[in-house]
Structures are given as structure tokens and as C-alpha cells.
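Help wanted!
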Amino acid sequence: MPLPAEFHEIAKRVNNWGRWGEGDERGTLNLITDEVVCAAARTVASGRRVPLALPLQQDGVQTGMIPGRVNPLHTMVAINLEMFGPDTVATSDDTVTMGLQAGTHWDGLCHVSHGGRLYNGRPADSITGHGRAAFNGVEKAGPIVSRGVLLDVARARNVHRLDDDHAVTPEDLEAAEELAGITVRSGDIALVRTGQIQRYLTGDKHAYAHPSPGLSIRTPEWFHARDVAAVANDTLTFEIIPPEIEGLWLGVHALDLVEMGMPQGQNWNLEGLSEVCAEEGRYAFLLSAMPEPFVGATGTPVAPVAIF
Amino acid sequence: MPLPAEFHEIAKRVNNWGRWGEGDERGTLNLITDEVVCAAARTVASGRRVPLALPLQQDGVQTGMIPGRVNPLHTMVAINLEMFGPDTVATSDDTVTMGLQAGTHWDGLCHVSHGGRLYNGRPADSITGHGRAAFNGVEKAGPIVSRGVLLDVARARNVHRLDDDHAVTPEDLEAAEELAGITVRSGDIALVRTGQIQRYLTGDKHAYAHPSPGLSIRTPEWFHARDVAAVANDTLTFEIIPPEIEGLWLGVHALDLVEMGMPQGQNWNLEGLSEVCAEEGRYAFLLSAMPEPFVGATGTPVAPVAIF
Amino acid sequence: MPLPAEFHEIAKRVNNWGRWGEGDERGTLNLITDEVVCAAARTVASGRRVPLALPLQQDGVQTGMIPGRVNPLHTMVAINLEMFGPDTVATSDDTVTMGLQAGTHWDGLCHVSHGGRLYNGRPADSITGHGRAAFNGVEKAGPIVSRGVLLDVARARNVHRLDDDHAVTPEDLEAAEELAGITVRSGDIALVRTGQIQRYLTGDKHAYAHPSPGLSIRTPEWFHARDVAAVANDTLTFEIIPPEIEGLWLGVHALDLVEMGMPQGQNWNLEGLSEVCAEEGRYAFLLSAMPEPFVGATGTPVAPVAIF
Amino acid sequence: MPLPAEFHEIAKRVNNWGRWGEGDERGTLNLITDEVVCAAARTVASGRRVPLALPLQQDGVQTGMIPGRVNPLHTMVAINLEMFGPDTVATSDDTVTMGLQAGTHWDGLCHVSHGGRLYNGRPADSITGHGRAAFNGVEKAGPIVSRGVLLDVARARNVHRLDDDHAVTPEDLEAAEELAGITVRSGDIALVRTGQIQRYLTGDKHAYAHPSPGLSIRTPEWFHARDVAAVANDTLTFEIIPPEIEGLWLGVHALDLVEMGMPQGQNWNLEGLSEVCAEEGRYAFLLSAMPEPFVGATGTPVAPVAIF
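Answered by r_m:
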């Protein structure tokens, strides 16, 4: 079933192909200029730091619903090994096997395609089975440090968490801006809180996964108008699932990643951040959310930190 | 062969057990106070960002010398998969298997033990084969964001890179402070540049590994006196290898990690940073170097960024 | 809670420590003599071959109940890669990550311990975190080829599959011998069919796992009296779960593996074999069930074949 | 560079597409009939068993030359874990990550393609990035049990091992038949010994890998004429490397796997077998070489056993 006309109309309006040159592989991350970073650093006032990553462990958020996206398998390869003889210094060492998008992560721009195309018109078949995306891999993103803004939609609506069938709309985002007392601007990284991750944190990963509130198909235009650099939230699929338009699965992914070239973050734990923002009375902060530079990868674990 | 008397004498002088309470698992990271972070944020002036991680790929720095510490094996589990039918949005997905200390990484405090003890007196056998360090795992570190200081020992000595048998001494560190025009202070993260990583970057990972310049057994006391929060460098083993004192393998590891509770970073690419510091004429910056919160792990990949 | 007196009494009666020498690591596999193999080969009459392994795939029998024992994650590392230029021969290549006991497998003799001891009195702490069992690893087993005998307990009882709380007793095994018209003898490999694996084959892996029929704590003595070389069945846990004696979890494992030194096989698909045995009217065959020689491993995948 | 005319001429002569039906995915394994197996079982006379697999361990035969084909990484996930409380039965458990063709293995028929085709005309692009070969995967092979014949080319030529540049020709195979006193016949599995694996066994895996003696481009026709079911040898690449015809890399692979549909085995340790055959004075035996049924895989570890 081809994508509906509505999708293609939005796609035209948010498309950024060529905006930063033919060869660009960073998309909206280009909007994070030196000035943006300086201004972001100036938001630091209390020195408080809030980490936003879930623990990486076998009992992670994955349920097996997404084939191959396995939770971290952490194994020891050495335990107090005295490599240099008895009574010497002993070392312990370990390894991990995991889906790169298994926990708190960034989607790389190559994570989805439609019509055989990736962001900036690259052919989708440039992703090969030899372990590599030739274009738009996460290692191309470069540093992700900017002003972060919490758009606390759940708090703005006075609910603990959004209903399962709640599509977060531009109106929701603006209500959250109003709560925050700030306006999202060019180069910002928007963190959209639904409260859905509480389901995982309280032990029900299946309820966390599906159905789930998430971003509406109407949000890419809003983010495009504000020229945000990236958006992350506290759900497994980022966008509302099942989708608003029947049959249009992953439409937001396609608009954000392919058309706009805007990285998405998922499974970010925004619960503590929500508390701190409310306490500090401010919703903007310096955000460092560095991708691990896996070469040719479609996504990457990230351990983001909000610095107040 | 038991550890030499010299080791035990230094150990007494740098020991931090109990300093932050019986239950502490963060060691010198406790020195990164809110004030330290605020001051670090104020160093940001140009907004320039310099990433310090090596690419994560199969052709990484590991040579097989350290059993089980495998380079990243990045594999695809889905390539342009149209999960929802033909002509829909297609997704690509991938996984990795790797040693947690295979690339640019932080050592967790549980990475080494001696005399059956970990940092803060925890029993070494609290690391079990069930994939977990019960104490001092990297997930306990919390956010690592502070002032970073580049101690560019190679540049201070006017060499491209230090000789293979060069042990970086306190005098070297002070010469680098003088070059930088700053004094390392409590809560700083010191990045010590030897230039050794050029060997890997130019294609000879065996020469990179061993023999290698690195930190002298005399440096832990210097770092202890300055109360630094953490130290990272651009070598595989961190300390000089083979060691200065015959038979005392990993003595610096034992002093830093076990006695002081001070995290070490290895395989950090400080080449670009050295250029930028020289250009900007300043060697202090805001450093974000967030550990991935692998539960019970002895180390973690890190994608550090210096923000000027 | 220490193991009950009943356990220790049986243990004394079935213990084989020292029987094949102080240094033995093969246990009852020593009972497979050249004569046994010759006789087994003479059972081949029709040339029919029945494979007994489950497919190795991500949708395997593991449910996450056993920490770290992950189903096979099969990933591609090359797909039609033309390494030598365009229009040359292209290769595809792949990797797997899996628990060694995730699918159809043999338990190695080092898989369980009690009272700090492995089979033949080896210290349990000879299994280290460095990826190795120093003693009794599966690579020590050598070739496993012998006469196989299907003890079709379900068929002998005229049921499709045994009830969840059915402990397979010596009386059940003798009824199955009677159905088969043969007597189990020294060096045989006994395959005990409960029918439980149908639960997995029809899509309910949770029901397959637990609760489950399985071997009674009374069977080790029976197998010891017959001097069988190994026993395999079609359940996840081999023995009845939950156990017959409250608190005595894995008692059969401890008797078979530690006391007798007799390898156990689990997750063997005996459904097709049951059909063929009934059709052929004979329940003995040549069985080849070669362990993959993973060095120092506690278990191994196996692809057994019954040859009629 | 397209494949040379010579290749295409041989390809025509050995092609088996359609021979066992349009839908066939087993190729020459179809030649192993019940009669063949019965006759093979009748060769068993002494009951002696000779295993042919290399140990599976991190220090395996792979050197990194073939991207992604990693040696086994064996890690513990539980060591003497008392899951059910103190003084109960303790379990140890482990996992592996490995290239499916890393050690002693069978190539699946889908391992190579040319001109966009797999065996029996299947499209090469039926191998997807989603971890699956839709056609000709190793799980389709079924049981591999037949008469094995050692063609001991090295012994027939009175050398310890063949020279690095020795291409094993049909004349060599016939000399080995003469030494063996038997003629290879339909359904046999031919094991061709070069002695090259001694290089690995004595510690030089690089010398083992390349250059290496191996099968000549002239051998597929010989095997086709004899209607053998499969061929394995004791080298890394199976065929001579570098190839006899400049630029024709993996030509033998393409003829055997794609045109004939004949599985190839590599890294088989035939040293002990050579000794036993010479001692027993016979070169034919019952061979069990069961593929592990990895679904959609291009190859599989195998632990073959020769039964005399």
C-alpha cells in the first residue's frame, strides 16, 4: 500500500534535501551553531546534572516485538584475573551484545527510508549487509550538544501520563511551551514528555511498548517551523502507535528522518528531569547527548545529561 | 610475586577509602560539585565542540593481546525492511558485540583489584560470573561533566609523540600546566596527551599497544594532591608499559582505581583537541564524558566532547 | 537450605567418582566402547535418518526465565559482497550470538555443582570468569555416537503428552522398554519422550517451560543400574519442575552430572522420532549426537540424528 | 571484471539446476539415499571414532582477513550460581558469539552467488539483511550422514603437507583413490587432505590462511562425474589461493555451491584421520557431519565424526 497523499503533502513542506549542500549527512544538527552552544552554556546556573538514560541491562525495554533488537547481554570475560601471576593486580573485563537501538538511543538518519530514498536523496540500497550504512550513519552526526528544552506535555495537561491513544499535537507542544515560559528556537533539542516510560519503570514493558501515546503526524511541520535540531521522547516508538492515519506506520519517522534529516531520540527517561524542571522553575538547560560513533550504524546508545 | 613495598607506601598516601562514606561507589567523582560544574560551564566562550572518541568499528585498537576484549562487531539485523507491506516506510536496524573497554572508554572502579579488595574495601569476589559487579560498577558513576584540562605533555616537550619508554612524571604534568597557563584544581578531569595514538591512527595498532609511553607510578600522588576527579589519556594501557618497576604490572591502575577510587580513561583521541587548544590559546574547557550505564560493568564506551 | 538427606543417600548409591580414574572428565561416556558402537551400527537396516534438533532461530525456546541464556541472534555480516570487484563471485556471511544451552543441547558435566564440587571431585571454583571451565568442559566429552533407545513414555501411557505434574519414574521407563521390546543396556543413550515439546512447537513457549513433566529424582538410580552413557529428553529443564521434593531444585541435575558424570540432553525434538519408531516397529537405532567442542564450555548445541 | 569464458564452460557441464526439482534446496545431498546410508553403516567394523572438528575457542583460525568472520568469543553468564538459595545446587552457564564459518564448518548453498543467482536459479537478493537466506539456507540441508572417503593427497604424494601453490587436481584425487584402494561413488562425502592445517596446529594461523594449497578449478567436474554428495578439506579457503586463473577468485566455490549445489566443508582437521586410516588400512568409514540447523544461515559449525 503506497503512502497516502497526505503524507506526501507534508513531506514537501518539511523537506530539507539540499539545504545544507548535496553532500550533507548531518541534517538539522547543522542548526547547532557555535552561537547556539554558547547561549546554551549560559543557561547553566546551579550546576545540577540530570542523567536521562535508562540502565543498560538484560531486563531492558525490548520485548521481542522488533526482530533482532535485543536487550543488552552483558557477560564477563575475566574476573579478578591475575594475568601476571599470583598476588599481582587482578583485572575484570566484560563484553556486551545489544541492539544499537535497544535502550535510550538516537535514531541515525539512515534508520528509515521510503521510496528507496534516505535523507538528502541518498539511495536506500547504500545500506549493505556488510555492516555499514555508506551514508547518513550515526558516526556522521558529530557532537550533539545544545540547548535542551523540556516540553512537559503530561504536566501541562495535569496528568501523570498521557492516555495510550493520545497523539501529541502542535497545540500540546505549545501548551508545554507556555508551562515552560519559553519558546523553542533554532538549534534547540526538544524533549517531549508523555510519562509513558513510567509503565516500563514500574515493571510492565509490554504495556510500555504498545499501544502508546506519541508524536502526531502533525508535529514534523511544527518542529520544522521552529528549526529544532533534534527531538527525543520517553516512548519506545516515538510516534503514536497504532498510527493516527490507518496504514501509515512510521510516518513521523519518515518525515523527521528522511525528509527533514532530523534525529529522533527514544526511550529517554524524562521523569527525573520533569521533577527538576518543576523545582528549578525552568525548562531550558545545557544538554549533552553524544552519539557513540558506531561506523555505518543506524542508531546508537546515548547517555544524555541535562545541566542546569 | 607480591606487590613491592614501594607500591604499598604510595597506596597508603593516596588511599581514599571511607573519605565519602562507607557506602560510596563513586570515588573522586564526588569532587565534581555543582560549583565545579558552574565554573566549568563558564569556560565556554566560542561554542566550538571537539569530539574525543575513536570511531567504533571492527578495525579498532584491539589486537587480541587482551583475551576477550573484542573490537566492535557491527551487524545488520534489518535492511530497508518493509515491515508493514510493500511501498511503506522501511527500517534498518543493527546490533553490536564488543568489549566494553575495546575503544575509547572509562575504566569502572571495579575494573581491577589487589589483595582481594576493590575501591572502598569492597571484596573483589563481589564481582560474579553472572554478568555483574555488585559494587563499583560503571552505572554507579553518575554524570561525568566537569572542567576538562588538557595536559599536553608531548607539546610541552616539543615532540610529536613521546618515546615508547617515556613514563609521564609529575614534572611532565607541571610542564604541561605551564604550557597551558593554568593549574589543575579539585574536580577537574585531566586529559594527558602523549601522542601515542598517532600510531593507531596511521595504521599500526600493534605499535600502538606495546611498548607504550604512559603515566608513571609517581603520578597517582600528584593527581591525589590536586584532587582531580578523573584522568584520561591517549594510550591503550594508560600507564607506561612495560612498567617502570620490574614485575609491577598495572600498579597505576591499582593506585588510581582501587586506592583512590579515581576513574581512568583510555584510547581517547586527543590529537584534534591539541590543535584546538593551541589555536584557541586555552587548555581548559567544559568536558562532557558520560558513561553508558551498563549495570554491573567494569568499563564503558564513552563519547567525550570538549566544549570551548 | 542444605540439600535433604534423601538426596545424599541417592548420591552415595550412584556416585561414579574415581570409577574411570582420578583424572577422568568424560564420566559415563566411557561406557561407549568400540563394541557398543559396532553393535549400534549393526542396528542400521533401512537407512532412514531422523534429525532431532530444533531449528536455531531467535524465536527459540528461551523465554528469559534463565538469565543470560539467550536465543540465537543470527546476523548477516556480508550479503552478496563482491570482494574482488564487480561481476565476480559474491559471498554472504553471518554470525550468531547465543546461549550454549539455548536450544537442543548437551549439558556438560561442569554445568552444575553442589557442595563446591563438580564431577569426580573437581573443585567448582575451577570454573573461572575468564570464559573457561578448567575441568569437565564439553570439549572433553569426545565423540558421542552409540546405540540410541527411544523410551516413549507418552506413547506407552497412551497419551499425547504427559501431564504437567507427571514425574517420569523407573516404572514409566520400564513400561516404555516393554513397548519398545528392548532392554536398555550399558553404553546406550536413552531418549525419554514426554511429548512436552509439542507445547513449544504449537507456539506456547511459556507453557513449555514451566510447569513441566520431567524425570523423577528416582531415575538416576535406574540409569545407573543400566549403565547408560547419556540421557536426553524433550523438555526445557530435563527433570520435573517444580521438583517432587520441596526445595530440591535441580536435584536430578546434581545426581546425573555431578555424582554419576552422566551428560543430559534437553530440548530434543522427539516427535518425529516417535512416529518413525512406531512405523518401523523398532525403538533402537544408531545415534550420532556430536557436541560442538567449545573449549571450557558448560554446554553445547547438538544436532543429533537417529539412523535406522 | 566478468568471470572468464573458461568458468562458464565448466559451469555448463556441472550444472545441476532442476535435477532434483524446481524447488530443491539440498542439491547433491539428495544423492545420499537410504541405500547409501545402509552401505555406509556396514563399513563400521572396529567401532573406532575419530572426531574431525577443531576446538572452538577465541584463538581459532580466523585472522581478521575475512571481515566479520570472528573467532568464537565464549563468555560466562553464570558461575556456580545458587539460584535457589545458599547450599543448593549451583549452575554455570555461558554464551558464544562467532562467525558461523569461523571454525570447522559447512558452507551452505547460499554462501556464494554469481550473476545474481544462487543454486537452482534462486535470486541472490533473496538473502536479506533481516538475518535470513530465504532459500538454500543450511537448515534446509537435512541430515548429513553417509560414507566418508579420505582422499589423502599429501600421503599419496609422500609429503607431510602440500606446497603452498599446489592446486589439487583430478590426477591427485585419483592417486589418493589408488592409495585408498577404493573408488569414490555416488553419495559419498569426500574428505581431501592437504596437510595445510598443520600450519595452524603448530601456531601459525597467518601461514595457514594464505597462500594455501587447495582444490583446483578442474575438480568440480571430477566430483560431478563421481556424483559425490559433499566435499570437505583441511584448509581455510577450500580452493587454492591465490587462484590458478588470474582474477578468478572463489571460482571453485561458485561451481560447487551455485552450479552443482554441492556443500563444501572447510577447516576440517584430517590429521588424526590420516593416521587412523593408515593404521586401519582402510579409507572409507561412516561419516556423521550434522549441520546445526541455523535458520537462513550461510554456513554452520559442524563436529564431524568418522566411525570405523
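OP: Thanks! One thing I noticed: Chain A has a mean pLDDT of 97.
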